[in-house]
Specification:
Length: 139
């Protein structure tokens, strides 16, 4: 049974776009931070007007930036979000298997994978959701 879970597609596991934090590329850092806080996911996706993924920002990225910035926090919060994101995040499509997703997450040491289709953001795969599925179904 565990084998079939690992071979299954991530389609039923990823969080749909309407339930994840995302902002448009012209948003301010403060607006992005508010979205992250409201959604409690620890990651934020940044898209253009066509919903093409432009990059991501994680809690860890924010912590590292706070240590490195050389300006007042108020100025930092007024920055455009596009200046602070990872513009080359690892992404997957919804047809990969759970095992492939776990392998990527493990190798890259990440908890979240944006799910894209033709460059458009359609959701995000969060490692906790995979673990919950394993625990709840006792697979």
């Amino acid at each position: 049974m565990l084998s079939s879970f690992y071979k299954s597609k991530i389609e039923s596991l990823f969080i749909n776009l309407d339930k994840i934090p995302y902002v448009y590329e012209n948003s301010l850092f403060k607006e992005a931070l508010d979205q992250m806080i409201n959604n409690k996911l620890g990651v934020l996706c940044v898209v253009n007007n066509n919903l093409d993924l432009k990059g991501i920002l994680t809690d860890g990225d924010i912590r590292r930036k706070l240590i490195k910035i050389q300006k007042p926090l108020s100025a930092f919060f007024a920055d455009d979000i596009i200046n602070h994101i990872n513009k080359q995040p690892f992404t997957v499509n919804k047809t990969i298997t759970v095992l492939e997703a776990i392998t990527i997450m493990s190798e890259k040491k990440i908890w979240d994978l944006p799910v894209v289709e033709n460059k458009k953001l359609i959701g995000i795969l969060h490692l906790n959701d995979i673990l919950k599925k394993l625990i709840n179904n006792k697979i």
